[in-house]
Design a protein that fits this description.
Two copies of one chain form a homodimer. Chain A has ten helices and no strands. With about 210 residues, the first copy, chain A, is mainly α. In chain A, helix 9 runs antiparallel to helix 10. The two termini of chain A are about 25 Å apart. The structure holds a DNA duplex (30 and 30 nucleotides).
Chain lengths: ~210, ~210
DNA sequence: TTCATAAGGTAAATATTACTAACCCACACC
DNA sequence: GGTGTGGGTTAGTAATATTTACCTTATGAA
């Protein structure tokens, strides 16, 4: 399957170089601070204080304050990609894969809210995100969904008269909207219930 | 219909006070600048220069730089609410209303991209948006959708075993995701085609 | 042994930027 | 005829992201 290959390729680059302690401390500090406030309200001074290093060190390891954000997001994404790779293993049928993927997606947002906040709120508000390497990771994940959908069309599990890209957007849009409210209002997110309902609606809409 | 009432109430507050020229110039300036770059990259100096007033005047009329953003958003929202009010007039049936509303929603994003940018990207990235008066407007609009859905449940047009709030989120999520990519990549947005496909999928999912 | 070079980290300065305090002017209205 | 008051400006100020130059240790090649 091409899909697993792609995610595998991602996972491969994971264990390359051990980051220097300062870099780790800075990334940790940002993650911690993001639990309390939004990115723009976090100052470099605060980050360095929390990390126990000097402000200038941030700029040794990161081009920007935003580059720091992107790299932290990147780490989350890589973890999530290997996770999905495992989750999808051994599942037969496009709709079954889709259901599992939707569950995993909602579940990771429910579990790791900082990840969700960065991806859903902070990243998109600056154009350079869409030119970053990090965004390429998202595209790979996004392609995986597309491939599942195309597999479904071939298997006659999914109708072929609506562009797969649009179906993907509707799926992603639904997931993200549902989670976004949970995230911003600090409400619980129930992956099982949400997956159930989302699939119930969308699957009825996309079966032939 | 309660729905029209609510939107009417909004429209009523529209023609209250004529804004002083400086205030208008500042709001215009921000709208113009938002076509070119994102909010955080726009400086108060830039806004005042573009408006032909001094920087301090911004703070006579607006609490914050973000308050300026919220008020500009507010103006867009009010306009959109009266527009929807007209669009929905005389349409019978929940699904028909829903289709029209989806079209109007997509269409306004397609037409006025600055509005879309603010609402979809800039506003959500700061928590105080959710405590602002502007957000109350969004909630009113959001309630209108809910009422249409509930009407549909009563008419047996829409299934009753999935929470209306969730259906609303899926509808809004789909619309926003679809438009968001169009906005961020400056691609064309085709309201007719998108409405057609979105309704085709979601309606199949929500009919009994 | 020695010397270069690089990696990890710091101290101190700087240019921008959002925001404020104090002031000016004109016109309406008792 | 003063007296606000609405619309506007001048001239700051404190924070903040980012830069420049520097220090220290350790590795490794000659």
């Amino acid at each position: 399957m091409e899909m697993s290959d792609k995610l595998n390729a991602l996972g491969a680059g994971l264990k390359s170089k051990p980051f220097p302690p300062g870099r780790v401390k800075i990334a940790d500090a940002l993650r911690l601070l993001l639990e309390q406030k939004e990115f723009n309200a976090i100052t470099t001074a605060e980050i360095s204080r929390q990390a126990g290093v000097t402000e200038a060190l941030i700029y040794k390891y990161f081009k920007d304050k935003r580059d720091l954000l992107h790299q932290v997001l990147s780490e989350y994404l890589e973890q999530y990609c290997v996770l999905v790779q495992g989750d999808l293993k051994g599942i037969k049928g496009a709709l079954n894969k889709l259901r599992k993927l939707i569950w995993s997606h909602i579940n990771v947002y429910a579990t790791s809210r900082v990840f969700a906040k960065i991806l859903l709120i902070e990243a998109r508000s600056h154009n350079d995100y869409y030119h970053s390497d990090t965004y390429e990771l998202v595209k790979v994940y996004s392609d995986v969904i597309l491939e599942i959908l195309e597999e479904g069309v071939l298997n006659r599990e999914i109708r072929d008269d609506i562009p797969a890209q649009l179906i993907r957007q509707i799926i992603l849009g639904s997931i993200e909207q549902v989670c976004l409210t949970g995230i911003t209002f600090d409400r619980a997110i129930d992956p099982d219930a949400l997956t159930e309902d989302i699939c119930e609606i969308i699957f009825n809409g996309i079966i032939p």
